[in-house]
Amino acid sequence: MEKITAVKGMQDIFQPEVRLWQHIEALIRSEMETFAYREIRTPVLEKTELFVRGVGGGTDIVKKEMYTFSDKGDRSVTMRPEGTASVVRAVNEHGLLNAGEPVSKYYYIGPMFRYERPQKGRLRQFHQFGVECFGSDSPFVDAEVIQILYNILTKLKLSDISVKLNSIGCPECRPVFRQNAEKYFGAVKDKLCVECNERINTNPLRIYDCKTPSCKENITGAPVILDHLCEGCSQHFESVKRALAQIGVPFVIDARLVRGLDYYTRTAFEVTSKHLGAQDALGGGGRYDDLVSELGGQKTPAIGFGMGIERVVIAVKTQNIDLGLGSGLRAYVVPLSRNEAEYAFKLLDILRKADISAQMAVSEKKTGVHFKDAEKAGADFAVIIGEDEIKNGTLTVKDLRKRSQQSVSEAELAAYIKNN
Ligand code: AMP
Predict the structure, then answer these.
(1) At the top level of CATH, which class does the domain 331-418 belong to?
(2) Per-residue pLDDT reduced to its tens digit, 11-54
(3) Dihedral pair phi/psi, residue 303, rounded to 5°
(4) Does 176 have pLDDT greater than 80?
(5) CATH fold of 17-173+229-318, please?
(6) Atom 15 (ligand 1) nearest CA
(7) In the chain, N or C: fewer CB atoms in 10 Å?
């Protein structure tokens, strides 16, 4: 019978890569404790309307990429393509928003679904870590949120990352910019792709995101939002830059950074890696001061980002970064014959009771083959038990990393493994 394979664009994650995932997730959780963000877990399935209103009917995500279907009750539901809309829905629904301080700070880690054309770094099921901070329009909050993303990536020892920063204004300053952008793009419309032609009057900001070479060429001379910021947005932007400089987060201004979603206001940012090729964004986000009210809540300023875990994993692997993760297995217990099996099983239990990750060989093999198995399993030590070892009460412990050997008594075994 034909083998069943995974759905296109969706991947299995297993050893040894899964260790890296666990490390990234643990790092995120520890960083989130430090920054006083609390986890929120929302359902994968939401009402389709949430994303149409929350992400924006004009975005590629909503127009082309959503996994939308009718459930058995004929309700249109969608597998979440991103996290922000769901978190906003949840905090609104459960009355978790304070009008002001203390600000409400949430984070999530989970799968997202977008029906995109799969390629390196672009999947149909991928995972995002994201943070959302509600209740403050302070530029310090913007700086804090950008710092979180920067910290996590640098703690993973990623080099060659670049924090790109822009302000995309607010409903007060964007109309003038929009008019100028419409005028500019209207004049070069013959050189823009079909989609960008549609965007000229519906959402000219999107054109800045277009990857079509002829559009990219014509974006170079286009007006930029930074030249159109109102006094409030301009001051906010200056303060964010100062705050980032104060806490040592390097950044570059990218006046053409607009982000793919409709809901952003003021600060927009993205962190890219030189090691990723075409899909070079590790994460990005921005301020969305109007989204909570657009989804039926009280007007609440907010800011957040989403980081793609698959892309971070690719970047760590491409750069050959050694995070010292190993397999996690410390001891591989080897009884040399059936006669030693019961004693070996007791020893295995002693190690596990001491919280040492241990595994035991259960079939009879040549000693050399056992060692190969131990290495294959990624163990640090092989603990060998033969007739002599039982008689003498000492075990032969082979350090598979250092290729050295030592006799250790049963009583000292756990401590020996812990300390080496
Ligand atoms: P976005 O929600 O589009 O701003 O995406 C935030 C981050 O999620 C991006 O910077 C990527 O790292 C990641 N991401 C977005 N779409 C995909 C995808 N289809 N496959 C893998 N990662 C993705």
Answers:
(1) alpha beta
(2) 999 989 999 999 999 999 999 999 999 999 999 999 999 999 99
(3) -150, 150
(4) yes
(5) BirA Bifunctional Protein; domain 2 (3.30.930)
(6) 308
(7) N
pLDDT band, very low/low/confident/very high, at 209 (cuts 50, 70, 90): confident
Q: Which residue ranges does the chain devote to CATH 3.30.930.10?
A: 17-173+229-318
From the CA of 312, give the closest atom in ligand 1: 12
The residue with tokens 């993973």 is 156
pTM of the full predicted structure? 0.92
Neighbour tally for 184: CB within 10 Å: 18
The closest residue, in CA terms, to atom 9 on ligand 1 is 283
Q: Which of 142, 125, 123 is nearest to 133 (CA)?
A: 142
Q: Indicate which residue's Cα is closest to atom 4 of ligand 1.
A: 284
Atom number, ligand 1, closest to the C-alpha of residue 311? 12
User: What's the chain's Rg over C-alpha atoms?
Assistant: 27
pLDDT tens, 313-340? 999 999 999 998 988 999 999 999 999 9
Name residue 313's amino acid: V
Query: What is residue 2's predicted lDDT score, i.e. its pLDDT?
Result: 93
Per-residue pLDDT band for 260 (boundaries 50, 70, 90) equals low
pLDDT of residue 204: 83
DSSP-assigned beta bridge partners for residue 165: 253, 269
